[in-house]
Structure formats: C-alpha cells, structure tokens
Amino acid sequence: MIHMKPEHSPQQSVILVVDDNPRNLQVISTMLTANGFKVIVASSGQSALKSLEIREPDLVLLDIMMPDMNGYEVCGLIKANQRWKDIPVVFLTAKAELSDIIQGFRLGAVDYITKPFRIDEVLVRIKNHLDLRHTKIQLEQQNSLLQSLNQELEVSRKTIQEDALKLKLMNEEKDRLFSIIAHDLRGPIRSFVSLAELFLDDETAMEPVMIRELANGMHQSALSLHELLENLLNWSLMQQEKAIVNEEELDMKLLFQRAVNLNQERIAAKEIMVFNQLEPQCRTKADENMVSTIIRNLISNAVKFTPRGGKVFITSSQSDNNLMKFTVQDTGIGMSPELMSKLFDYDKKVCRPGTEGEPSSGLGLMIIREFVHRNGGELSVESVVHEGSKFSFTLKRA
Questions:
Q1: pTM to 2 decimals?
Q2: Do 84 and 52 form a contact (C-beta atoms < 8 A)?
Q3: Whole-number Å distance between alpha carbons of 87 and 298
Q4: Pairwise CA distance, residues 33 & 119, whole Å
Q5: Is 93 buried (19+), middle (13-18) or exposed (0-12) by CB count in 10 A?
Q6: From its phi and psi, is residue 241 left (phi > 0), alpha (psi between -120 and 50) or beta?
Q7: In this structure, are residues 296 and 318 in contact, taking their beta carbons and an 8 Å threshold?
Q8: pLDDT digits 0-9 by tens, 85-118
Q9: How far apart are CA 324 and CA 395, in angstroms?
Q10: Contacts for 215-220 with beta carbons within 8 Å, 24 or more apart?
Q11: Nearest-5° angle of CA 357, CA 187, CA 177?
C-alpha cells in the first residue's frame, strides 16, 4: 500500500466513507487511516445523513449503488442543505457509463472515481480536493477578515470626518466667540474708561450730582460687563459640555426676586414697574445655577427692551406632564416675525441695543434655551412689535 501523508493533520481532515459493502468499507478505511486521515464510515444513505448531522466531514467518499437510497440521492440532499453544500463529494463506484459520470457531476460532485480503483490515484485526488477545500475556506476567512477590516476602516473614516467636522465647527464657534468678545466688550470697557478718565481729570471741580452721575455710569458699565462675562462663561461651559445638571428643589418666587433685585438700579433708572405674581412656595426641581441664569437673562432682557415707564409681569401656571410654566412678559418694543425667526440661529445672531442703548450680545437667549432643555423643559416666545414680548419656559414641579 502507498502511504501519502497529507499536509492536513488528522483533526483537520475527516473523511466520511459511504458504502453498503463491508469489505469495501474496511479496505478504504484502512487505506485512509494509514495515510493520516480520520475516517467515519456509513453503510447506507440514511446513516450517512445522520453522521453529517453529528459531525461535518472535510470530504465525502460516496458509493452510488446502495439499497433504499442511492448515492445520487444522498449527494442531492447534501448539496441542497445550506450547512453541507460546500463539502466536496467524490463518487467511488463501479458505475462507469458516461451518463452516470455526467449525472454525478450535475448533482454537484467534485470528482468521479470508478472501481476497481488504484490506491495512489484515490489518495492524490482526495489530497487535491482537500487542498482546494482548505484553500477555499482560508480565502473565505481572509475575505471575511478583509470585509471586517474594510468596515472598521469605513467606521474610522467616518469618525475622522465627524471629528474633523466637529473641530471645524468648534473653530467657527471659537472665532464667533472671539468676535463677540471683541465687539461686545469694547463698548462697556470704553465707556468705563472714559468715565474714569473724566472723573480723574476733574474730580475736585465736580459737583456731587456730577460725581454721582459718573459713578452711576461706571456702575452700569460694570454691570453690563459682568452680565456679558457671565454669559460668555456659561456659553463656554455649554460648548465644552461641562455644564452638569444637579437637580434640587427650588423656590422660584425667591429666584425671580433675586434677579429683579440684581437689576433694581436699571429698573429704577427706567422707571419700570415689575410685578412678581408668583405664589409663595412655588417650587420646582431643577439645577439652581442654570435656572438662576435663565431667570437673570429673561429679567435683564425684559428691562433692556422695555422703554421708560413700562411694565414687566412674572407669572406661573400649571402645565401638562407634571410641569410648571413660568412667563416673563413685558410692554416693550417687541419683535417682528422676521426677527423672531433669527433668535436661536447662531449664524444670524440677534444683538440689537436696548431702548436706552444698553448693549446686547445675543448669547442670553441661546443659553436660556439650552439650560431649559437640559432641565427637561421647553422654551416658547410670543411677541408683537411695539406691544411687547412674552417668554415662557417649563420646569418639573417639585
């Protein structure tokens, strides 16, 4: 007997031999085992199919002439099964007619060997088909790996593109922020410096009334600077996503009153009446710093865009889904529909001066909307030119 050790280890090369002749099974099994293959035997088509269910071989060596189920039927069932269709089937049979051979290949067999066979020929053919099968498996694995790598590469490419876009947007935001700082800080600082120089140049000759007016002007400039810097700081935290929501129970009447007190000098200077109509113990659950910033900006805007002698109303009402609705309504100059459409568009940032030239950066409303959303609420705006504006936002009721 010729011994041709295959390149595949016995664990890799399992051959299912199907033949109803015990003598044939013994001869073929001995030959294959001696050449390093692991052999599984089946004496009928049914037992061959049961063996395939238990363990899938690397190759099937199949006789044709068997009772109950012939080799052609077995081959057809193997090739019709999604799990087994790629297992190479080699017919080893005494049927040597051309029509038999053609039928075997049509059913999907990779080879057809007639009996009596030569052992060395059978071994070479088996080895070649196993090599082809293992090469195909390796190619499929490499192709699968390549597809996986391509998918990862595509994900990486999209991530890089997204990161590049984020970086571009961040740079644009940074440029806009610098533009705001350069434009909006210049006015209050210049006013503050001019008033200070005037005060220093002629402080001894000034009447108390003039000194008070200059000091009041410097104070208003300082307040404008402080408000702008607070908004810039909050905007920076928002862009870096460092603004963390810490929920706690809040007394909304108290927070609104604090905001009114902060703006008291402006309110008094413009002779505006503010009506805090919130009920005592009007409580919500939200982040105190964020809500204070929301309220401060709303009150500041209402005072800023309300002419001398106007009114500001602070009210609350029950909303749906266990929410409370808070409204700051003024009798100010109002806004046109066109202006309202630009309120939250950063590229068309609205920054018009107040009724007495008070500066505005346009950042306040951006911050209000963002902080309201982060606390689970919604912001709405209504306005009529020359009649006033109404800003409403919702928060969770405590």
A1: 0.51
A2: yes
A3: 75
A4: 13
A5: buried
A6: left
A7: no
A8: 999 999 999 998 999 999 999 999 999 999 888 8
A9: 5
A10: 216/265, 216/269, 217/191, 218/192, 219/265, 220/265, 220/266, 220/269
A11: 110
